[in-house]
Amino acid sequence: MITIDILKELGAHTDEGLNRCMDDEEFYLSLVPSAFEKERYDALSSQIAAKDYASAFETAHALKGVLSNLALSPLSDTLGEMTELLRSDTDTDYAPLVDKMWEQFDKYYKAVNE
């Protein structure tokens, strides 16, 4: 079961996330799993692989928003960096960022689903 302490260990700024949820820990923790719907991350990876940067931007921006509102750093920072590159339609090697995203996603996903 996910806890504030586990999220802090993963680098989340839980004080910020809790503040956005009116310091309601139960409510905050109930929202966290919604940030880790694997299908959304799979879609982003596929969009980037297909160089569909417009769609990838929309997906990355939406994920970044959810992660940022819940203060789930460093994953939100990685998605933020990706979002800015996609916003400018930068044709670059996104593989390192995608790999970093998956590495961070896996850590959170395991914690959320234990």
Account of the protein in words:
- This protein is mostly helical and 114 residues long.
- The chain has a single domain (4-112), classed as Four Helix Bundle (Hemerythrin (Met), subunit A).
- 70% of the residues lie in helices and 0% in strands.
- It is built from 7 helices and no strands.
- It has helices at residues 4-9, 14-20, 25-31, 38-49, 53-69, 75-87, 95-112.
- Helix 6 (75-87) runs antiparallel to helix 7 (95-112).
- The protein is elongated.
- The termini are close together.
- The model has no long low-confidence stretch (mean pLDDT 95).
Describe this structure in a few short sentences.
This protein has 114 residues and is mostly helical. 70% of the residues lie in helices and 0% in strands. Helix 4 runs antiparallel to helix 5 (53-69) and helix 5 packs antiparallel against helix 6.
Mean pLDDT: 95
From the N-terminal CA to the C-terminal CA, the straight-line distance is 6 Å
CATH class wording: Mainly Alpha
At CATH level 2, the architecture is Up-down Bundle
Topology at a glance:
Elements: H1 4-9, H2 14-20, H3 25-31, H4 38-49, H5 53-69, H6 75-87, H7 95-112
